[in-house]
Amino acid sequence: MRHVDELVRAKASGGGIDPATANWAIDLQGKLFDSLARIGLVDPKRHTSLGDDARLLGPFCDAYIASRTDLKQATIDNYGHARRLLVERFGERHILAAITVADAENWRRWMLARPVKWDADGKPTATMAEATVSKHVKRAKTMFAHAVKDRLLTENPFAELKTSSEVNRSRDHYIDRKTAAAVLTACPDDDWRLVFAFARFAGLRRCEVLAMKWTDILWDVERLRIDSPKTGLRFCPIFPELMPFLLASSESAPDGAVRCIHRYHRLANVGTQLNRVIESAGVVPWPKTFQNLRATRRTELQERHQDHVVNSWLGHSSQTAEKHYLQVTDDHWAAGSNEVTGEAIDAESIINGSGGVRGGVIGANHQGKEPITPRKNPAKQACEVPGTRGFMSLAAPLGLEPRITESESVVLPITLWGSVVANALTRKLF
Description:
This protein is mainly alpha-helical and 430 residues long. The protein is built from 19 helices and 5 strands. The protein is elongated. Residues 388-395 have low confidence and may be disordered.
Protein backbone atom coordinates (compact mmCIF):
# COMPACT_ATOMS: atom_id res chain seq x y z
CA MET A 1 0.00 0.00 0.00
CA ARG A 2 1.20 3.50 -0.82
CA HIS A 3 0.60 4.89 2.67
CA VAL A 4 2.50 2.03 4.32
CA ASP A 5 5.41 2.55 1.90
CA GLU A 6 5.39 6.25 2.80
CA LEU A 7 5.53 5.42 6.52
CA VAL A 8 8.45 3.05 5.94
CA ARG A 9 10.29 5.69 3.89
CA ALA A 10 9.71 8.40 6.52
CA LYS A 11 10.91 6.14 9.33
CA ALA A 12 14.05 5.12 7.42
CA SER A 13 14.99 8.66 6.37
CA GLY A 14 13.83 10.42 9.53
CA GLY A 15 11.99 12.95 7.35
CA GLY A 16 8.43 14.23 7.36
CA ILE A 17 5.33 12.31 6.36
CA ASP A 18 3.11 13.20 3.46
CA PRO A 19 -0.06 14.96 4.82
CA ALA A 20 -2.39 12.50 3.10
CA THR A 21 -0.53 9.58 4.70
CA ALA A 22 -0.54 11.31 8.10
CA ASN A 23 -4.32 11.77 7.96
CA TRP A 24 -4.71 8.15 6.89
CA ALA A 25 -2.62 7.00 9.85
CA ILE A 26 -4.66 9.14 12.25
CA ASP A 27 -7.90 7.47 11.16
CA LEU A 28 -6.38 3.99 11.12
CA GLN A 29 -7.95 1.41 13.46
CA GLY A 30 -8.06 -2.35 14.06
CA LYS A 31 -5.49 -5.04 13.31
CA LEU A 32 -3.62 -3.02 10.70
CA PHE A 33 -3.05 -0.26 13.24
CA ASP A 34 -1.82 -2.80 15.82
CA SER A 35 0.57 -4.36 13.28
CA LEU A 36 2.03 -1.00 12.26
CA ALA A 37 2.31 0.06 15.89
CA ARG A 38 4.31 -3.08 16.75
CA ILE A 39 6.97 -2.23 14.17
CA GLY A 40 7.01 1.47 15.12
CA LEU A 41 5.39 2.97 12.05
CA VAL A 42 2.56 4.59 14.03
CA ASP A 43 2.34 5.81 17.61
CA PRO A 44 0.96 3.00 19.83
CA LYS A 45 -0.11 5.58 22.49
CA ARG A 46 -2.26 7.59 20.14
CA HIS A 47 -5.34 8.97 21.96
CA THR A 48 -5.63 5.86 24.14
CA SER A 49 -7.23 7.82 26.99
CA LEU A 50 -10.40 8.58 25.09
CA GLY A 51 -10.33 6.10 22.23
CA ASP A 52 -12.14 7.29 19.13
CA ASP A 53 -13.71 10.20 21.03
CA ALA A 54 -10.34 11.94 21.12
CA ARG A 55 -10.82 12.68 17.42
CA LEU A 56 -14.12 14.49 18.06
CA LEU A 57 -14.35 18.20 18.84
CA GLY A 58 -16.49 18.23 22.00
CA PRO A 59 -14.80 15.33 23.85
CA PHE A 60 -11.34 16.58 22.88
CA CYS A 61 -12.02 20.10 24.24
CA ASP A 62 -13.46 18.65 27.45
CA ALA A 63 -10.41 16.43 27.95
CA TYR A 64 -8.00 19.31 27.29
CA ILE A 65 -9.75 21.68 29.70
CA ALA A 66 -9.89 18.98 32.39
CA SER A 67 -6.15 18.40 32.00
CA ARG A 68 -5.29 22.06 32.69
CA THR A 69 -5.07 21.76 36.45
CA ASP A 70 -2.44 24.52 36.40
CA LEU A 71 -4.99 27.19 35.48
CA LYS A 72 -7.17 29.31 37.74
CA GLN A 73 -10.92 28.76 37.64
CA ALA A 74 -11.57 32.01 35.76
CA THR A 75 -9.20 30.95 32.96
CA ILE A 76 -10.79 27.50 32.80
CA ASP A 77 -14.18 29.17 32.45
CA ASN A 78 -12.85 31.23 29.55
CA TYR A 79 -11.66 28.07 27.79
CA GLY A 80 -15.16 26.72 28.36
CA HIS A 81 -16.60 29.72 26.49
CA ALA A 82 -14.29 29.07 23.52
CA ARG A 83 -15.29 25.39 23.57
CA ARG A 84 -18.99 26.36 23.56
CA LEU A 85 -18.53 28.59 20.50
CA LEU A 86 -16.58 25.91 18.63
CA VAL A 87 -19.25 23.30 19.29
CA GLU A 88 -22.02 25.75 18.44
CA ARG A 89 -20.44 26.34 15.05
CA PHE A 90 -19.15 22.86 14.11
CA GLY A 91 -21.06 20.41 16.31
CA GLU A 92 -20.25 18.24 19.32
CA ARG A 93 -19.22 15.16 17.27
CA HIS A 94 -17.35 16.97 14.51
CA ILE A 95 -14.06 15.28 13.56
CA LEU A 96 -11.03 17.41 14.49
CA ALA A 97 -9.14 16.56 11.31
CA ALA A 98 -12.09 17.74 9.21
CA ILE A 99 -11.68 21.36 10.39
CA THR A 100 -9.72 23.21 7.70
CA VAL A 101 -7.96 26.58 7.68
CA ALA A 102 -10.94 27.99 5.76
CA ASP A 103 -13.28 26.62 8.46
CA ALA A 104 -11.24 28.40 11.12
CA GLU A 105 -11.41 31.70 9.24
CA ASN A 106 -15.17 31.30 8.77
CA TRP A 107 -15.55 30.62 12.50
CA ARG A 108 -13.80 33.90 13.30
CA ARG A 109 -16.04 35.85 10.89
CA TRP A 110 -19.10 34.07 12.28
CA MET A 111 -18.24 35.25 15.81
CA LEU A 112 -17.75 38.85 14.65
CA ALA A 113 -21.29 38.80 13.18
CA ARG A 114 -22.84 36.91 16.10
CA PRO A 115 -25.42 39.04 18.00
CA VAL A 116 -24.86 39.39 21.74
CA LYS A 117 -27.52 42.02 22.58
CA TRP A 118 -31.09 42.54 21.42
CA ASP A 119 -33.67 45.30 21.86
CA ALA A 120 -37.21 44.90 23.18
CA ASP A 121 -38.40 43.85 19.73
CA GLY A 122 -35.81 41.11 19.48
CA LYS A 123 -33.63 42.92 16.93
CA PRO A 124 -29.85 42.59 17.38
CA THR A 125 -28.24 45.76 18.74
CA ALA A 126 -24.63 44.60 19.20
CA THR A 127 -22.31 41.88 17.95
CA MET A 128 -19.27 40.31 19.56
CA ALA A 129 -16.39 42.75 19.99
CA GLU A 130 -13.15 42.30 18.07
CA ALA A 131 -11.18 42.02 21.31
CA THR A 132 -13.47 39.23 22.59
CA VAL A 133 -13.21 37.33 19.31
CA SER A 134 -9.41 37.58 19.47
CA LYS A 135 -9.42 36.00 22.93
CA HIS A 136 -11.51 33.05 21.74
CA VAL A 137 -9.27 32.57 18.68
CA LYS A 138 -6.21 32.56 20.93
CA ARG A 139 -7.69 29.80 23.11
CA ALA A 140 -8.70 27.74 20.07
CA LYS A 141 -5.11 28.04 18.80
CA THR A 142 -3.83 26.71 22.12
CA MET A 143 -6.20 23.74 22.23
CA PHE A 144 -5.56 22.69 18.63
CA ALA A 145 -1.80 23.11 19.09
CA HIS A 146 -2.10 20.52 21.84
CA ALA A 147 -3.95 18.24 19.39
CA VAL A 148 -0.95 18.49 17.04
CA LYS A 149 1.43 17.61 19.88
CA ASP A 150 -0.80 14.65 20.75
CA ARG A 151 -0.61 13.52 17.11
CA LEU A 152 -4.32 13.85 16.64
CA LEU A 153 -3.68 16.41 13.88
CA THR A 154 -0.84 17.07 11.46
CA GLU A 155 -1.37 20.84 11.47
CA ASN A 156 -3.21 23.48 13.47
CA PRO A 157 -5.98 25.05 11.32
CA PHE A 158 -6.10 28.07 13.66
CA ALA A 159 -2.35 28.74 13.62
CA GLU A 160 -2.42 31.34 10.83
CA LEU A 161 -5.41 33.29 12.13
CA LYS A 162 -4.36 36.83 12.94
CA THR A 163 -5.68 38.38 16.11
CA SER A 164 -5.98 42.05 16.96
CA SER A 165 -5.48 43.61 20.37
CA GLU A 166 -7.36 41.81 23.14
CA VAL A 167 -8.01 45.13 24.90
CA ASN A 168 -11.08 47.19 24.07
CA ARG A 169 -10.74 50.68 25.57
CA SER A 170 -13.72 52.03 23.65
CA ARG A 171 -16.00 50.96 26.53
CA ASP A 172 -14.09 52.80 29.25
CA HIS A 173 -16.26 54.95 31.51
CA TYR A 174 -15.29 57.12 34.48
CA ILE A 175 -17.82 57.20 37.34
CA ASP A 176 -17.36 60.55 39.05
CA ARG A 177 -18.31 61.31 42.68
CA LYS A 178 -21.60 62.98 41.74
CA THR A 179 -22.76 59.90 39.82
CA ALA A 180 -21.56 57.61 42.62
CA ALA A 181 -23.58 59.58 45.19
CA ALA A 182 -26.70 59.36 43.00
CA VAL A 183 -26.37 55.57 42.66
CA LEU A 184 -25.75 55.09 46.40
CA THR A 185 -28.87 57.13 47.16
CA ALA A 186 -30.91 54.90 44.83
CA CYS A 187 -29.69 51.65 46.45
CA PRO A 188 -32.58 49.88 48.23
CA ASP A 189 -30.67 48.84 51.39
CA ASP A 190 -27.31 48.63 53.18
CA ASP A 191 -26.29 45.47 51.34
CA TRP A 192 -26.54 47.11 47.93
CA ARG A 193 -24.83 50.27 49.15
CA LEU A 194 -21.94 48.10 50.37
CA VAL A 195 -21.78 46.23 47.03
CA PHE A 196 -21.39 49.51 45.20
CA ALA A 197 -19.00 51.02 47.76
CA PHE A 198 -16.75 47.94 47.71
CA ALA A 199 -16.42 48.26 43.92
CA ARG A 200 -16.23 52.07 43.66
CA PHE A 201 -14.15 53.02 46.71
CA ALA A 202 -12.07 49.85 47.32
CA GLY A 203 -11.70 48.77 43.69
CA LEU A 204 -12.81 45.18 44.39
CA ARG A 205 -13.62 42.82 41.55
CA ARG A 206 -17.16 41.42 41.44
CA CYS A 207 -15.98 37.98 42.60
CA GLU A 208 -14.10 39.64 45.48
CA VAL A 209 -17.13 41.65 46.59
CA LEU A 210 -19.25 38.52 47.05
CA ALA A 211 -16.40 36.59 48.72
CA MET A 212 -15.73 39.14 51.49
CA LYS A 213 -16.40 37.86 55.02
CA TRP A 214 -16.85 39.85 58.20
CA THR A 215 -13.72 38.18 59.54
CA ASP A 216 -11.88 39.83 56.62
CA ILE A 217 -12.69 43.29 58.01
CA LEU A 218 -9.72 44.07 60.26
CA TRP A 219 -11.29 46.93 62.20
CA ASP A 220 -8.37 47.43 64.61
CA VAL A 221 -5.84 48.16 61.84
CA GLU A 222 -8.37 49.59 59.37
CA ARG A 223 -7.58 47.12 56.62
CA LEU A 224 -9.43 44.72 54.34
CA ARG A 225 -8.17 41.17 53.97
CA ILE A 226 -8.98 40.15 50.37
CA ASP A 227 -8.60 36.47 49.55
CA SER A 228 -9.14 36.87 45.83
CA PRO A 229 -10.21 33.83 43.78
CA LYS A 230 -8.22 35.33 40.91
CA THR A 231 -4.95 36.65 42.34
CA GLY A 232 -4.68 35.30 45.87
CA LEU A 233 -4.34 37.07 49.20
CA ARG A 234 -3.74 40.82 49.51
CA PHE A 235 -4.59 43.68 51.88
CA CYS A 236 -5.83 47.20 51.29
CA PRO A 237 -6.93 50.06 53.58
CA ILE A 238 -10.48 50.62 54.71
CA PHE A 239 -10.66 53.87 52.75
CA PRO A 240 -12.50 56.81 54.39
CA GLU A 241 -15.14 56.78 51.62
CA LEU A 242 -15.85 53.09 52.31
CA MET A 243 -15.98 53.17 56.13
CA PRO A 244 -19.52 54.65 56.62
CA PHE A 245 -21.15 52.05 54.36
CA LEU A 246 -19.16 49.24 55.94
CA LEU A 247 -20.28 50.30 59.45
CA ALA A 248 -23.91 50.64 58.40
CA SER A 249 -23.96 47.21 56.79
CA SER A 250 -22.29 45.57 59.82
CA GLU A 251 -24.93 47.02 62.13
CA SER A 252 -27.83 45.79 59.97
CA ALA A 253 -26.32 42.35 59.25
CA PRO A 254 -28.27 39.40 60.73
CA ASP A 255 -26.79 37.50 63.64
CA GLY A 256 -24.39 34.80 62.57
CA ALA A 257 -23.82 36.26 59.09
CA VAL A 258 -20.53 35.04 57.64
CA ARG A 259 -20.24 36.96 54.41
CA CYS A 260 -20.63 40.72 54.14
CA ILE A 261 -23.07 40.31 51.24
CA HIS A 262 -24.99 37.38 52.69
CA ARG A 263 -28.00 37.61 50.42
CA TYR A 264 -26.36 36.28 47.25
CA HIS A 265 -24.33 33.23 46.36
CA ARG A 266 -20.65 33.83 45.66
CA LEU A 267 -21.20 33.05 41.96
CA ALA A 268 -24.34 35.19 41.61
CA ASN A 269 -24.52 37.69 38.74
CA VAL A 270 -25.21 40.88 40.66
CA GLY A 271 -24.30 43.05 37.68
CA THR A 272 -27.78 42.84 36.15
CA GLN A 273 -29.48 43.96 39.37
CA LEU A 274 -26.91 46.72 39.90
CA ASN A 275 -27.70 48.06 36.44
CA ARG A 276 -31.35 48.30 37.48
CA VAL A 277 -30.30 50.28 40.54
CA ILE A 278 -28.22 52.58 38.33
CA GLU A 279 -31.21 53.15 36.04
CA SER A 280 -33.42 53.97 39.03
CA ALA A 281 -30.91 56.73 39.92
CA GLY A 282 -31.58 58.35 36.54
CA VAL A 283 -28.18 57.31 35.19
CA VAL A 284 -27.58 55.40 31.98
CA PRO A 285 -25.81 52.12 32.90
CA TRP A 286 -22.23 52.09 31.69
CA PRO A 287 -20.56 49.10 30.01
CA LYS A 288 -18.44 46.66 32.05
CA THR A 289 -20.21 47.73 35.23
CA PHE A 290 -17.78 46.43 37.85
CA GLN A 291 -14.59 46.76 35.80
CA ASN A 292 -15.20 50.46 35.17
CA LEU A 293 -15.88 51.03 38.88
CA ARG A 294 -12.54 49.37 39.62
CA ALA A 295 -10.80 51.35 36.85
CA THR A 296 -12.20 54.59 38.23
CA ARG A 297 -10.79 53.84 41.67
CA ARG A 298 -7.41 52.90 40.23
CA THR A 299 -7.29 56.21 38.35
CA GLU A 300 -8.15 58.15 41.52
CA LEU A 301 -5.57 56.40 43.68
CA GLN A 302 -2.91 56.83 40.98
CA GLU A 303 -3.13 60.61 41.47
CA ARG A 304 -2.26 60.42 45.19
CA HIS A 305 -0.09 57.35 45.83
CA GLN A 306 3.02 55.66 44.48
CA ASP A 307 2.49 53.17 41.69
CA HIS A 308 3.76 50.13 43.61
CA VAL A 309 1.51 50.99 46.56
CA VAL A 310 -1.66 51.03 44.45
CA ASN A 311 -0.57 47.81 42.73
CA SER A 312 -0.35 46.12 46.12
CA TRP A 313 -3.75 47.39 47.25
CA LEU A 314 -5.69 46.51 44.08
CA GLY A 315 -3.86 43.32 43.13
CA HIS A 316 -2.49 43.91 39.66
CA SER A 317 0.70 45.16 37.98
CA SER A 318 1.57 48.54 36.50
CA GLN A 319 1.41 47.02 33.01
CA THR A 320 -2.09 45.70 33.67
CA ALA A 321 -3.18 49.07 35.04
CA GLU A 322 -1.93 50.90 31.95
CA LYS A 323 -3.48 48.33 29.64
CA HIS A 324 -6.89 47.94 31.28
CA TYR A 325 -7.64 50.46 34.03
CA LEU A 326 -6.03 53.92 33.93
CA GLN A 327 -8.26 56.51 32.26
CA VAL A 328 -8.03 60.14 31.15
CA THR A 329 -10.73 62.09 32.98
CA ASP A 330 -12.42 65.45 32.42
CA ASP A 331 -10.33 66.87 35.27
CA HIS A 332 -7.17 65.84 33.40
CA TRP A 333 -8.32 67.72 30.30
CA ALA A 334 -9.23 70.79 32.35
CA ALA A 335 -5.87 70.76 34.12
CA GLY A 336 -4.05 70.44 30.81
CA SER A 337 -5.80 73.56 29.50
CA ASN A 338 -5.56 75.72 32.63
CA GLU A 339 -2.59 74.69 34.77
CA VAL A 340 0.98 75.77 33.98
CA THR A 341 3.29 72.76 34.24
CA GLY A 342 6.61 74.62 34.55
CA GLU A 343 8.11 78.05 35.15
CA ALA A 344 5.93 80.73 33.57
CA ILE A 345 7.25 82.87 30.73
CA ASP A 346 6.34 86.51 29.99
CA ALA A 347 4.41 85.79 26.82
CA GLU A 348 2.85 89.27 26.68
CA SER A 349 6.16 91.09 26.47
CA ILE A 350 7.41 88.62 23.84
CA ILE A 351 4.29 89.12 21.71
CA ASN A 352 4.43 92.94 22.06
CA GLY A 353 7.92 93.01 20.56
CA SER A 354 10.14 93.79 23.52
CA GLY A 355 11.91 90.50 23.29
CA GLY A 356 12.81 90.16 19.62
CA VAL A 357 12.15 91.05 15.98
CA ARG A 358 9.20 89.70 14.05
CA GLY A 359 10.17 87.53 11.12
CA GLY A 360 13.35 86.13 12.61
CA VAL A 361 16.79 87.37 13.68
CA ILE A 362 18.94 89.30 11.21
CA GLY A 363 22.63 88.48 11.35
CA ALA A 364 24.84 91.32 12.66
CA ASN A 365 28.17 92.65 11.30
CA HIS A 366 30.42 91.71 14.19
CA GLN A 367 33.38 93.81 12.97
CA GLY A 368 31.31 96.96 12.76
CA LYS A 369 33.57 98.61 10.14
CA GLU A 370 32.64 97.38 6.69
CA PRO A 371 29.09 98.00 5.54
CA ILE A 372 27.13 95.02 4.30
CA THR A 373 26.81 95.40 0.53
CA PRO A 374 25.12 93.12 -1.97
CA ARG A 375 27.39 90.82 -4.00
CA LYS A 376 27.71 91.84 -7.64
CA ASN A 377 26.73 89.60 -10.51
CA PRO A 378 29.95 88.35 -12.24
CA ALA A 379 28.34 88.61 -15.66
CA LYS A 380 27.32 92.19 -15.01
CA GLN A 381 30.84 93.03 -13.83
CA ALA A 382 32.29 91.49 -16.99
CA CYS A 383 30.16 93.76 -19.11
CA GLU A 384 31.47 96.77 -17.22
CA VAL A 385 35.01 96.15 -18.56
CA PRO A 386 36.19 99.32 -20.34
CA GLY A 387 35.77 99.06 -24.06
CA THR A 388 32.89 96.60 -24.07
CA ARG A 389 30.44 99.40 -24.96
CA GLY A 390 27.64 98.04 -22.78
CA PHE A 391 27.22 94.62 -24.36
CA MET A 392 25.22 93.60 -21.24
CA SER A 393 22.07 94.06 -23.28
CA LEU A 394 23.34 91.46 -25.75
CA ALA A 395 24.72 89.02 -23.18
CA ALA A 396 21.66 88.33 -21.03
CA PRO A 397 22.33 85.75 -18.25
CA LEU A 398 21.01 82.86 -20.32
CA GLY A 399 24.37 81.18 -20.97
CA LEU A 400 26.40 80.91 -24.14
CA GLU A 401 24.21 78.18 -25.71
CA PRO A 402 20.68 78.64 -27.02
CA ARG A 403 17.88 77.40 -24.75
CA ILE A 404 15.56 74.89 -26.34
CA THR A 405 12.56 76.23 -24.47
CA GLU A 406 13.10 79.81 -25.59
CA SER A 407 11.05 80.87 -28.57
CA GLU A 408 13.78 83.19 -29.78
CA SER A 409 17.30 82.56 -28.51
CA VAL A 410 19.69 85.29 -27.62
CA VAL A 411 23.23 84.32 -28.74
CA LEU A 412 26.38 86.25 -28.21
CA PRO A 413 27.52 87.42 -31.68
CA ILE A 414 30.79 86.00 -32.96
CA THR A 415 32.60 89.33 -33.32
CA LEU A 416 35.63 90.99 -31.91
CA TRP A 417 33.54 92.52 -29.19
CA GLY A 418 31.93 89.16 -28.49
CA SER A 419 35.35 87.65 -27.93
CA VAL A 420 36.21 90.42 -25.49
CA VAL A 421 33.07 89.75 -23.44
CA ALA A 422 33.64 85.98 -23.46
CA ASN A 423 37.20 86.42 -22.24
CA ALA A 424 36.04 88.73 -19.49
CA LEU A 425 33.43 86.21 -18.35
CA THR A 426 35.99 83.44 -18.35
CA ARG A 427 38.37 85.41 -16.14
CA LYS A 428 35.64 86.30 -13.66
CA LEU A 429 33.98 82.91 -13.42
CA PHE A 430 37.07 80.69 -13.33
